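A quick aside before the break. I want you to see a complete sequence-to-structure record at least once, exactly as it would be stored in a machine-readable document. Don't worry about memorizing anything.
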Amino acid sequence: MVDALKLRLKTLPFGTHTVECHLDESFFDLDEQTEVRRATVDVTLNVTRKSESTYRLEIACDGTVTIPCDRCLDDLDLPVETDYCLNVEQMGTELDDTADELLIVPSDWRELDVAPIVRDTVLLAIPMTHCHENEDDCNADMLDLLDSHRAEAVPDDADGDPSETTGTDPRWEVLKRLKEQ
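That is the input. The structure line, written in tokens, reads:
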């Protein structure tokens, strides 16, 4: 599976070539710790060799990843449907990935591993916050546990100064006097 995402740049014929592969959770655990518990993602990679040193990558990912719900920590299945296009230019002696849609690789590279780009494409399709759409779908026992640890509101006294009921650190009093001077 991962070998299919290694492109042999120098021997790739001119024209468009399609690579298809299926990714599971083991793919996401290869290089870094991710929240992906399970995955079933189909990837279609169209590689177009335009010249001796210019390539265009079109990545399409479609499937589902299972990650923990931020609210209850139970499994949450999220659909993944994303595309990414990248131009690859072989020139010079150093890798330059600072541009959004251009990757410059050293001219002596014979192979380009696209797996990290595919992994990032899928992971960036996952929303920042991931909770069950309906709170009723969350684990009820975990929600009860969270409620039992919820902080109580601190009551204000009649003057509106909560420092009298909670006690104020004396260091703040010294700073308060400096401010009043």
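Two observations worth writing down. The mean pLDDT is 86. The first strand starts at residue 6 and ends at 8. We'll return to this after the break.
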